[in-house]
Amino acid sequence: MSTAAPICVGTPLPVRSHGAEVWVVSLLCLLVTFVSCCLLSPVYGWLITGCCMFLFILFLGRWIVGRPLGVLVSERNLMSLGRFQMIAWTILLLSAYFSIALKRLYVLSANSQALPLNIAMDWRLWALMGISATSLVGSPLLLNAKSMQTPSDKTVDQASRALNEPAESISANGVGLLYSNTSPADACLSDMFQGDDIGNAAYIDASKLQMFYFTVIALLTYGYAIYTGLGNVYPQQGFTMPVPSDALLALVGISHAAYLTGKTAQHL
Q: Which of 32-41, 62-71, 131-140 has the least mean pLDDT?
């Protein structure tokens, strides 16, 4: 959001065709992933796979939005916490699954009795991805009603003073009660912690801050479980997706419930 001292990352680039660059980066990431997962240890293969996925996402943001972190920018030209946690869980889970599948295929394919790609996925893993997807999809639905309303002049004036931004600009860019930036170049990391409405855009949203911390803690906890699981010296027993605990699932579920509930509050 356009505050007096925004925390912005990346310089917007002109949008243009990246045909050759897309092919080179995509093929290079796939090649590095295959080689590292097959020839290196499971842990290193997983880490390199995750780095390649993250690198490709950075290039994707640059190609489409014009800045590396463009994948986090929403339709209102704000960096979205929902997008952050969805991308983070996608990279963590899919990089682990893909690296495990390649490692099992490389190690166990010589055994005709083995099923290298028969990787069990506990229902808790599906629940983690489902919760993340629900927040990302549910947020616009909950905010849709606010986009049909009009903020009061007093609310716009207060936001103008707090954000150090002209009231005319706030009114012109806003989507109903919702704050919006002019272009993706205005999106900043601080957007993820500020309110959605014009009335609370200049303030920290406690529910977003809570979900950010819960998401980071959950990612680190499950990431460590993957790290230790891939260090198993018995390939027939290892190379599997760890089962997250019920406590971890509850932690993620509660944080997302508070996050979505906070979006229903109105700041007229």
A: 131-140
Number of Cβ atoms within 10 Å of the Cβ of 109: 11
Number of folded domains that form the chain: 1
Cα dihedral sign, 201-203-204-208: negative
The residue range of the domain holding 93 is: 19-262
Cα 256 from Cα 216, distance rounded (Å): 13
Q: Is residue 172 part of a domain?
A: yes
pLDDT value of residue 106 = 77
Q: What was the pLDDT predicted at 8?
A: 54
Cα torsion for 190, 87, 147, 1, to the nearest 10°? 20
| Lowest mean per-residue pLDDT among 136-140, 177-181, 216-220 | 136-140
Residue type, 99: S
C-alpha dist (Å) from residue 181 to 14, 88, 138, 203 = 18, 24, 21, 16
238 within 8 A of 117, measured Cβ to Cβ? no
Is residue 6 assigned to a domain? no
Total residue length of the chain: 268
The reported pLDDT for the residue numbered 111 is 57
Q: Which residues contact 102 (CB under 8 A, 6 or more apart)?
A: 33, 34, 37, 38, 45
pTM: 0.84
